[in-house]
Amino acid sequence: MTSETLEATRLFQHFAKIEMSEEIEKLKEEIKLMNEDRMNLETLLEDELPDYSEKNELHVKKDIFKLEHKLRKLRKKYPRMFVGENMIDVEEEEEEEEEKGCCSSSDNVPCEWQCVRVTCQTLNASGEMR
């Protein structure tokens, strides 16, 4: 290899590292916002809706579930990004979901919503009771 080729290789690696670190920062910010959204939704559910109907509760719980699902996907894809208080054992969460026992249906409904579907009447495709 010539010195020009080596220099080009070093420059390429340097810029690849910069791009990766920028991508990681974007993902960290996205995770932070998702955690804030989740906390806001939980606060809304607990504090601001003291006399909410079951329908509103289901919508808020569905939003929380969607955010948790996105976080689990990010944890699987980028496990090293979750350090400290964000660190959760993904395999343990999956085992807990399987133990719930509501995953007998063949449709692609998440386990948690199958449980809700069974106990709280029937939900249509958008999650509303009918």
From TrEMBL:
UniProt feature coiled coil, ranges: 17-44
Record has Coiled coil as a keyword: yes
Keyword terms, alphabetized: Coiled coil
Domain of life where this protein originates: Eukaryota
Protein name, as recorded: Uncharacterized protein
